[in-house]
TrEMBL record:
Name of the protein this chain belongs to: Fructose dehydrogenase cytochrome subunit
Family matches, as InterPro entries: Cyt_c-like_dom, Cyt_c-like_dom_sf, Cyt_C_IC, Cytochrome_c-type_DH, Membr-bd_ADH_cyt_c
Main location: membrane
Subcellular location: Cell membrane
PROSITE patterns, sorted: CYTC (PS51007)
Residues annotated as signal peptide: 1-44
Alphabetic keyword roster: Cell membrane, Electron transport, Heme, Iron, Membrane, Metal-binding, Repeat, Signal, Transport
Top-level taxonomic group: Bacteria
PANTHER family the record matches: ALCOHOL DEHYDROGENASE CYTOCHROME C SUBUNIT, BLL4482 PROTEIN-RELATED
C-alpha cells in the first residue's frame, strides 16, 4: 500500500516551517541545514527501517552507479558510455539542491519504479527502473529512509552528452512503450517462500538481468533472459541452468560461494564489473538470501547458443618446466619477440604456478588456477584480455583479492600473444585475439 503521508522536509521541523525555509534560504544554507538535519540520530521507531534500507540499498548495489568518488558516496557522476553518448548518474544524497532532499516519498517511488523525475521528465534506462518496477513500496521507502541518513553532498551531476535524437527525453515514452512494463512482483503460489524470495532478489533488487540479458536494437532487454550479454569490453556470462552454456554444472554451494566471495574454485573468479558487484553488494547478503538466489537461478529457463562444453571444463597443466625455461628472453635484448611461454613465465608463473594450477588451493586469498576457469574457457577472450590489461581488485568479507594489470608493461602484441597462449594451454583454444583488438580494449 502506498504511503500517502508526507515526510517532513527536515526532521525536527514542522512541515510549514520547513517549506517556508526552502523558499528563501540560499543553496549554501540549505546544504548546511541538510547536513544537520539528515545525518542526525534517527528516531527509535525509524532505526529498524533505516537498517533494513541500508541492507536493501546494498542488495540493489545503489552505490556502484551513484558513486564516482568514494569519499562522497551516492553523490553521482558515474559515466555510462553508450554508443550514442554518455549519461551521468545523479546525486542521490539528501542535499536539497543537487540531491533528492526535496523529493517527496511519492516522487522517489516514481523515479525508482517508473523512471519519472519530479518534474515529469523520463529517466534514461541506465537507471534500472525496468527491474525496480517490481519493488514494493515498503522496500523503496526503506531505501529512502537510509539515504536520508547519508551525508549530503552539494554537487550537481555532469551534463549528459547524448547526440540527437537520444538527447530528447520526451522520446523515452516511445522506448518505454516497447521495452517497459510497469508492475509489482507477484509471488507464485505454487513455489516455495525461498524460491519467491530468490525471484524477487534476482529480478528486482539485484536486477541481474540488466547485465546478463542480451539487449535488442533499442537497448531494451530481449526475451533471452539471463542468457549472457556484452558490457562494453566485458562479457556478463550466461547464468541460466544450461549445463554447457550456463551454470547448470555448478552446485548450489559453489554459486553461493561465488556470490559471497567472488570465487568458486574450479569454476570462476569474479573480475571487472562482477567483482564490483561482489564487493559492493552480494557479500553483504544473508546466507538465506544467497541461497534463495541460487535456488531461483536453478529453475529459470535454460538457454544455449550452441555451446557444447562448459566454460570451466577446459585446460591442462603445463607438463614440463622446460617448456617455459628453454626460451630466449628477447623482449629486452632485441630480436624476435617473446612467445607466449616466455611471457607467461615472466609475468604469470610466479603467482599462478608454472603449471598454471594456482597457489593456495581453495583459501580465500589464493592465486586461482587457470585450469577450469570460466574466464579462459569462454568463447571469446574479452574478460581474459581485460584482466591481463587491468588486473583484478575485489574486496571480500575475508581478504582483498588483487592482481596487477600489465597494460603499462606489455605491448598490444605481447598481450595478444600471452592471451592466445593462455587460451590454448589452459582454456578454449578457439578463443583468440589480435593486437588490434587489444588496442581497442586498452
Amino acid at each position: 500500500m502506498t504511503n500517502t503521508q508526507p515526510r517532513r522536509a527536515f526532521k525536527g521541523f514542522p512541515n510549514a516551517l520547513s517549506s517556508a525555509l526552502l523558499k528563501w534560504l540560499p543553496a549554501a544554507a540549505l546544504t548546511t541545514l541538510a547536513s544537520f538535519a539528515f545525518t542526525g540520530v534517527a528516531h527509535a521507531d525509524d532505526t529498524a527501517q533505516i537498517k533494513h534500507g541500508e541492507y536493501l540499498a546494498r542488495a540493489a548495489d545503489c552505490i556502484a552507479c551513484h558513486t564516482s568518488n568514494k569519499a562522497q558516496p551516492f553523490a553521482g557522476g558515474v559515466p555510462f558510455n553508450l554508443p550514442f553518448g554518455t549519461i551521468y548518474s545523479t546525486n542521490i544524497t539528501p542535499d536539497p539542491v543537487h540531491g533528492i532532499g526535496q523529493l517527496s516519498d511519492a516522487d522517489f517511488i516514481s523515479a525508482v519504479r517508473e523512471g519519472k523525475s519530479k518534474d515529469g521528465k523520463r529517466l534514461y534506462p541506465a537507471m534500472p527502473y525496468t527491474s525496480y518496477t517490481q519493488l514494493t513500496d515498503a522496500d523503496i521507502l526503506a531505501i529512502r529512509a537510509y539515504l536520508r541518513t547519508v551525508a549530503p553532498v552539494a554537487k550537481p551531476a555532469p551534463e549528459n552528452t547524448l547526440s540527437f535524437p537520444f538527447n530528447q527525453r520526451w522520446a523515452m515514452m516511445f522506448w518505454n512503450l516497447f521495452n517497459f512494463s510497469s508492475g509489482r512482483f507477484q509471488e507464485d503460489p505454487t513455489k516455495s517462500a525461498e524460491w519467491n524470495r530468490g525471484a524477487y532478489l534476482v529480478g528486482a533488487l539485484a536486477h541481474c538481468q540488466e547485465c546478463h540479458t542480451p539487449r535488442n536494437f533499442m537497448q531494451g532487454l530481449s526475451s533471452k533472459a539471463l542468457a549472457g550479454a556484452e558490457l562494453g569490453n566485458w562479457t556478463a556470462f550466461n547464468i541460466t541452468p544450461d549445463k554447457n552454456a550456463g551454470i547448470g554444472g555448478w552446485t548450489e554451494p559453489e554459486l553461493i560461494a561465488y556470490l559471497r566471495d567472488g570465487a568458486a574454485p574450479g569454476k570462476a573468479n569474479a573480475a571487472g564489473p562482477m567483482a564490483e558487484v561482489v564487493e559492493n553488494s552480494t557479500r553483504f547478503l544473508t546466507p538465506e538470501d544467497l541461497k534463495a538466489m541460487a535456488v531461483y537461478l536453478g529453475t529459470v529457463p535454460a538457454r544455449n547458443n550452441g555451446e557444447t562444453q562448459p566454460r570451466f571444463s577446459f585446460g591442462s597443466p603445463i607438463q614440463s618446466v622446460s617448456q617455459l625455461r628453454n626460451q630466449a628472453l628477447t623482449v629486452l635484448g632485441g630480436g624476435a619477440p617473446a612467445d607466449g611461454r616466455t611471457l607467461y613465465n615472466g609475468n604469470c608463473a610466479s603467482c599462478h604456478g608454472w603449471q598454471g594450477t594456482g597457489v593456495g588451493g581453495d583459501s580465500a586469498g589464493a592465486y586461482p588456477s587457470l585450469l577450469h576457469n570460466t574466464a579462459l574457457g569462454a568463447a571469446t577472450p574479452n574478460n581474459l584480455t581485460m584482466v591481463v590489461l587491468h588486473g583484478v581488485s575485489r574486496q571480500t568479507n575475508q581478504v582483498h583479492v588483487a592482481m596487477p594489470g600489465f597494460a603499462d608493461q606489455l605491448s598490444d602484441a605481447d598481450v595478444a600473444t600471452l592471451v592466445n597462449f593462455l587460451s590454448m594451454q589452459f582454456g578454449n583454444p578457439a578463443a583468440t585475439t589480435s593486437a588490434a583488438n587489444v588496442a581497442k580494449m586498452r
